[in-house]
Amino acid sequence: MIVFKVTMGNKRKIINDPVFGFITISGNNVLNVLQHPYMQRLGRIKQLGLSSFVYPGAVHTRFLHSIGAMYLMQEAINQLRMQGQNITHEDAEAAQLAILLHDIGHGPFSHVLENSLVEGVAHEEISGWMMQRMNNEFGGLLNKAIDIFHNTHHQHFLHQLVSSQLDVDRLDYLCRDSFFCGVNEGTVASARIIKMLNVLNDNLVVESKGIYSIEKFLVARRLMYWQVYLHKTSVAAEQMLINILKRAKSLAMNGIQIQGSNALQFFLHHDITKEDFNTNQTLDMYAMLDDSDIWSAIKMWCTHPDKVLSLLCNAFINRKLFKVKILNEPVDVKKVAQLKLSYQKTWNITEEESDFFWGIQSVSTDTYSPSDDRINILYNDGTIKDISDASDMLNINVLTKKVRKDYFYYTLL
Amino acid sequence: MIVFKVTMGNKRKIINDPVFGFITISGNNVLNVLQHPYMQRLGRIKQLGLSSFVYPGAVHTRFLHSIGAMYLMQEAINQLRMQGQNITHEDAEAAQLAILLHDIGHGPFSHVLENSLVEGVAHEEISGWMMQRMNNEFGGLLNKAIDIFHNTHHQHFLHQLVSSQLDVDRLDYLCRDSFFCGVNEGTVASARIIKMLNVLNDNLVVESKGIYSIEKFLVARRLMYWQVYLHKTSVAAEQMLINILKRAKSLAMNGIQIQGSNALQFFLHHDITKEDFNTNQTLDMYAMLDDSDIWSAIKMWCTHPDKVLSLLCNAFINRKLFKVKILNEPVDVKKVAQLKLSYQKTWNITEEESDFFWGIQSVSTDTYSPSDDRINILYNDGTIKDISDASDMLNINVLTKKVRKDYFYYTLL
Amino acid sequence: MIVFKVTMGNKRKIINDPVFGFITISGNNVLNVLQHPYMQRLGRIKQLGLSSFVYPGAVHTRFLHSIGAMYLMQEAINQLRMQGQNITHEDAEAAQLAILLHDIGHGPFSHVLENSLVEGVAHEEISGWMMQRMNNEFGGLLNKAIDIFHNTHHQHFLHQLVSSQLDVDRLDYLCRDSFFCGVNEGTVASARIIKMLNVLNDNLVVESKGIYSIEKFLVARRLMYWQVYLHKTSVAAEQMLINILKRAKSLAMNGIQIQGSNALQFFLHHDITKEDFNTNQTLDMYAMLDDSDIWSAIKMWCTHPDKVLSLLCNAFINRKLFKVKILNEPVDVKKVAQLKLSYQKTWNITEEESDFFWGIQSVSTDTYSPSDDRINILYNDGTIKDISDASDMLNINVLTKKVRKDYFYYTLL
Amino acid sequence: MIVFKVTMGNKRKIINDPVFGFITISGNNVLNVLQHPYMQRLGRIKQLGLSSFVYPGAVHTRFLHSIGAMYLMQEAINQLRMQGQNITHEDAEAAQLAILLHDIGHGPFSHVLENSLVEGVAHEEISGWMMQRMNNEFGGLLNKAIDIFHNTHHQHFLHQLVSSQLDVDRLDYLCRDSFFCGVNEGTVASARIIKMLNVLNDNLVVESKGIYSIEKFLVARRLMYWQVYLHKTSVAAEQMLINILKRAKSLAMNGIQIQGSNALQFFLHHDITKEDFNTNQTLDMYAMLDDSDIWSAIKMWCTHPDKVLSLLCNAFINRKLFKVKILNEPVDVKKVAQLKLSYQKTWNITEEESDFFWGIQSVSTDTYSPSDDRINILYNDGTIKDISDASDMLNINVLTKKVRKDYFYYTLL
After folding, report:
1. What is the ipTM for the molecules in this complex?
2. pLDDT at position C186, please?
3. Which residues make beta-bridge pairs with B407?
4. Cα A65 to the chain's mean position, in Å?
5. Which residue in D1, D2, D4, D341 has the most chain C C-beta atoms within 10 A of its own C-beta, making it the best mutation to test that interface?
6. Record: contact A299-B290, CB cut-off 8 A
7. Does domain A255-364 have CATH number 3.40.630.30?
8. Nearest CA in chain A to B52
9. pLDDT of residue D211
10. Shortest CB distance from B216 goes to which of D192, D212, D223?
11. pLDDT(A5) > 80
12. D189 contacts B187? CB cut-off 8 A
């Protein structure tokens, strides 16, 4: 077959990223991990789930986010080496693999799934199981990456780059999500922040001239939370999808026929708990699920005989989403009763069923958590301060306050 | 229900576009069309089909492209009005609706579908039928838009803005595709070009100082064709998908059970011709199809008993795409015979079946077509020249030359 | 002269701005004002004075800033009209002229001049006098613009657009300065903020969904202050320039010959007070001054026999700027005495003269001033809150705190 | 002086560039060269001379362009090392120094000066002399850089990076000039092109997949020539400045007093030839000249008793530039005679003097020069083709055609 043989040689693979430009794949190990079906699956799962109902450009995938975070890891490692840190070639690769795989366990519409089909199993746990499976397949290639991920690697700062309040995960997703949403205000000066990184006593620190960039990073993150991640319309759309999947599951468990892909059927017909993931089958099924199964099924359910299911699915597919009001005081129970009654009458459904068409969802976030891995500022004289002390603008009380909003969502008749 | 009533008032709707920024929906008619299930469907169809295999950021939808083109239409109308053209409010709206709907008939992986499931029916025709259906639903609201689309409106230049060699469709997709691919070189100065537009004798013209921008537009378009639209890996991926769907259809037509959504099953089990679209059912089924049906089905077909189907589907899902070589001379038939034989032996398949794993695909494009609606340059003295005469760089021979490449694609064993 | 006659027609003039793209000159009145020598002079004065010592891209002019602010004024007026405000054509033009002229009185290195050559005369006053002169020349054309500038126009919100804590001046300069400095973090979503503007009771308000954008605007402004406007190296360079001009003036006033342009000589040889501006000559001389006079003179002064002057000028021209330390405690007077002594010995100068080579400069800024024109947030229910109350992040104490830094600058021997 | 001692340590210096982001100064040698008065002078000379009359953002300096080109040199060296080229640390530094200094001999409004004050001396020669002077000062530090500059270094491709048809000079200035002008169409994918570079037989080559980028590069360059560098208004402004300086020189040589800085006076009062640069004085005076001398003098000359000089200077300062028409046929001599007569009558000047107020200037450029260092395309099979053969769009006849335009410029009475 000489004529068709392709000499791959030692050509570097380059990926064209609209956010960071050319990203170089650093070697064959990384390339092989990128090619694994588990990673390829992330290319079929949107990073921001249902946000594209609000920001139609926000259809970028978890695959690209992982690659972007890997790029920032390369940059961070370069920077720390220039600052004098010894990072071996193997550890640098492991750090890249760790960040590449940090989200491997995400399912489609992750938060939704965790509230409907795989209740009580967090995607972080699934990530761990999937990494383990891949590591077995690759004959231990991921040992160091898994150490970094689980913070059992001897260089603690590598773990901090993967997971802390100033990790490359956040530095990528804030840039990337604001880019694809078109919300320029959420942009973060990732390159600048990385140029300010250093390590002191095995801990990541930011040089003091970077204070304003960190302040801006925290403010941008907060803005993205309220303007994108917790946008009331996205949250309401998620609730609608949760209700759809709950209803579908309850029908399936009651023996009513319901269409869908094999993988989706599996999760509709079984109550899945953590223990189930001990079997290969559950993880295999999970690995087959992506956004397309959900969308394809919901379109079919638009004509399902169950009225609740078909009403919700039609609304979802055709973007007749729940209306949302922000509650400043407790909801008026009499009005809610009236509302439910109107649903019952209009569609001839039970009171219990009317609860699929409205609800209250609380969302909250803080800007900075003093209990997590801190963001440390390094001064020229060698002293260290927590960002909440170093900043003259952001005081700790404001920063760590959990801001909460209560969304009342309902169907407009 | 007073408490929950939402006064919509005359609030303008604004869409946040990462490419052009804020885009204003000009009124309720446009809003209603945007909300129509046919339009919403475009939000589930990627603009660039399988290009995300090569450019992982290129996952933007046909929905957003349509909105971007509508925005450029607004800008173009503003410009022409400033130049003194009379364009009524109704015609301006109709032009926006026409461009919004110009791609309404696209199916998932459009080109693929036209070569597998709905052979012999072009998406342009389907667009016409869908617009007609929508127009009936909206009680004639789209009459003028359809006139503009079909070039039966009395202002010819409005049709040219929708469909010509310098229409807002191209101005948007070149900007947008290059943005999401991260191929900055494909960017087109849409804003600048629009500022140079004028109308002479009911024909769109470009003022002479815009010559260099037009040259750059043509060069950028050509670059995007070879670097993105006709990228050998994308083309090969499309061929793989065509082969998958053809095989699936042939199995289905032979009575072999094959999984998939209702809509997909419909097209797998029927030979659809133009005439079939006279029935509402065919169009309804078509309108239910989107990218998710294809992906979801192919994942299931990975375990189908038919070896050809399952081999192709596994390769596709896990991005083990065909290898591609550009042929500079006719393919060596002996080598091909050897290749086919090796497939037959390896997988124990027939010779006929071995043809699913390789092929030759010719692609070609020109930069400028002298037979289509020309790009006319207007000089200060009132004379008009075709861009191919006006440009001192681009001579007509080069511009209109059809460049063709022959891709030989095959499976690497 | 027929052959050379140029028909200007009613062609709109367009200016190409790297920050906002195409900016349209709205009519001949604006064009004439732009062509006035006073406006053209702003094209020879850098917006950021000596910041290019730190950010070498920051060489943009006050002329371009004025045009950018005019563009945002056009956008703001469009927005308010869409919100239902009546703004006449004349008032819209006047608002554009007002913002175009708002900085007309700036001299080269404005802050420097006010501390050396024209002590006790603020550029705002000079702006007023220059506008008056232009208005006389233009036969009253600027009456309304001057009313808006001085807040005597009946529509108060137009003045607020020119001058308040959320005026188009700030919206432009934050965008523009961050663009040319390459400090992306200072970027402000001007377009988005303008889309959120409304008017209530003749006061500019921001719709509540714009809160996060306003927070980001305030944070970005603060960042730009510390990272650019009050950067220690820029501040020290300004002090060096002040010392140069003070020394040159003292030499000139003592009858020592000193080279320089006529305009510069005028200000070196006279103690100029406000009253002097009553004469046309003073304003004429002022209008002839720009950055080039200062640079050209300092180069010549490098070889002046006065040691203090030539030392400072050489240091300035060749960017051997003062070193700067941020004082966290009062400066050590003994060490300063030592320092001065070393200057005296090294250069054989008097103690008094040694003070030209070091100093302490305090800089300070707040983020939001509760005593100025407030930033008001408008809620859907019609209520209004000050941004410091509306924001759950920015509390009033933090926002209004004057942050001060003391820079100790000195010459490194 | 302990308290004020500043430990510089081995901190890397970083420059913030709005075009390329953070640029790292690679070491103390480069830093020292950057600090040299000759380099600092480039910070007072605009890259695009009078283009800011047309594009008001185009005020960036030659200093920043040199730094940008140095950055691209760093990138190119990284790329070639990854391709397997051996480039020593010393040679890499020398290449950076060579490109940093490649424009060191430019005077203010370079082209203008060469046509008025220092006739017959090209800036390239002056660059050579200045580098030599600097090399003497630095004790031979620049030996290798000068070798690369003059193409006497053993690695020819390093010279090609400094000076060829695809050098980092062009890659920077196309990006940078289009950025500051706001002419996005001129942007060049520098990063992408550099990723395609390789070396074959000591010659720079571009890998074949970069063909489209090279085509776009050539087209963008051509666009920038006609839209910016040879813009008729800029060219006419240059002619006005040439006439001003010629007139001023002729007055000075005739013993008429004329104001201006020492350095400018030197060149006004002497006929400078190449030989004069053998003396240190001439080079010293040249090194003192920058844009500020020209501007400051012209403002003073506005009131010079010589009518020709004052008329031209007033027009120049207040942007009443020559009008320009593109000649498509020889100018009508009778009309010109009429025009000159009208100038003579209006201003009471001689016929000879009337020639200062009009003229004809021919400008021309080609896109690609087949006689210079070629752009070579490397194919996967190891063959090399000239870009004019490799491209199927750009044929050699079109590419190498010198396009010429004749500008007739005159004063509108």
Report:
1. 0.93
2. 79
3. B326, B361
4. 9
5. D4
6. yes
7. no
8. A43
9. 87
10. D223
11. no
12. no
**Predicted pLDDT of residue D391:** 82
CB of B287 closer than 8 Å to CB of B37: yes
Per-residue confidence (pLDDT) for residue C381, from 0 to 100: 85
Q: Which residues of A touch D (CB under 8 A)?
A: 12, 14, 21-22, 82, 191-192, 195
With respect to CATH, is domain D232-364 assigned 1.20.1250.30? Answer: yes
Comparison of pLDDT for C10 and C161, the residue scoring more: C161
Instruction: Tell me the pTM.
Output: 0.89
One-letter amino acid of B156: H
Structure tokens at C404: 């001060």
Kindly indicate the confidence band of residue B412, based on its pLDDT and cuts at 50, 70 and 90: very high
Q: Which amino acid, residue D197?
A: L
Chain A residue nearest residue B343, CA to CA = A1
What residues of chain C lie within 8 A of the CB of B22, using their CB? 191-192, 195
- Interchain contact, D215 vs B223, CB within 8 Å: yes
Lowest mean pLDDT among A235-239, A301-305, B127-131, B270-274: B270-274
The torsion angles phi and psi of D22, rounded to 5 degrees, stand at -75, 130
Indicate whether A10 pLDDT > 50.
no
Indicate the CATH number for domain B13-230+375-402.
1.10.3210.10
**pLDDT for residue A6 is more than 70:** no
Per-residue pLDDT, D369: 82
- Residue C129 — φ and ψ, nearest 5°? -65, -40
Contact D90, D144 (CB under 8 A): yes
Residues of chain D found within 8 Å of residue C341, distances taken between Cβ atoms: none
The mean pLDDT value for B304-313 works out to 98
- Of C204, C157, C173, the closest CA to residue C20 belongs to C173
pLDDT at D7 (0 to 100): 31
**What does chain A come to in residues?**
413
Percent of chain B surpassing pLDDT 70: 96
Of C184, C223, C403, the CB nearest to A187: C184
| Domain A11-107+120-229 indexed as CATH 1.20.58.1190 | no
CB environment A225-241: b (16+ within 10 A), e (fewer): bbbbbbbbbbbbbbbbb
Shortest distance between the Cα of A20 and any Cα of chain D, in A, equals 11
- Contact criterion met (CB < 8 Å) for C185 and A189: yes
Q: How many CA atoms lie within 13 A of B289 on its CB side?
A: 25
**How far apart (Å, rounded) are the C-alpha atoms in residues D292 and D264?**
10
- Find the closest chain A residue to D11 by CA distance: A83
For chain C, the domains span: 12-230+374-402, 232-364
Q: What is the edge-to-edge ordering of all strands in the sheet holding C376-378?
A: C197-200, C203-207, C376-378, C384-386
Low-confidence ranges of chain D (pLDDT < 70): 1-12, 393-397
What is the chain C residue with the closest CA to D294? C292
Assign D267 to helix, strand or coil.
Answer: helix
* Whether pLDDT at B410 is above 70: yes
Q: What pLDDT is recorded for position D4? A: 33
What pLDDT score was predicted for residue B192?
Answer: 85
Grade residue A394 by pLDDT with cuts at 50, 70 and 90.
Answer: low
**Which residues of C have a CB under 8 Å from any CB of A?**
184-185, 187, 189, 192, 212-213, 215-216, 219-220, 222-223, 226-227, 367, 392-395, 398, 401, 403
* Average pLDDT of the segment spanning B324-343: 94
pLDDT tens, residue by residue, C320-346 = 999 999 998 899 999 999 999 999 999
Fold of D8-229+375-400: Hypothetical protein af1432 (1.10.3210)
Residue of D nearest to B209 (CA): D227
What number of other Cβ atoms are within 10 A of residue C242's Cβ?
Answer: 21
Given a cut of 70, is residue A285 above it in pLDDT? yes
Q: Selecting from 3.40.50.300, 3.40.50.720, 1.10.3210.10, 1.10.150.20, what CATH number does the domain C12-230+374-402 have?
A: 1.10.3210.10
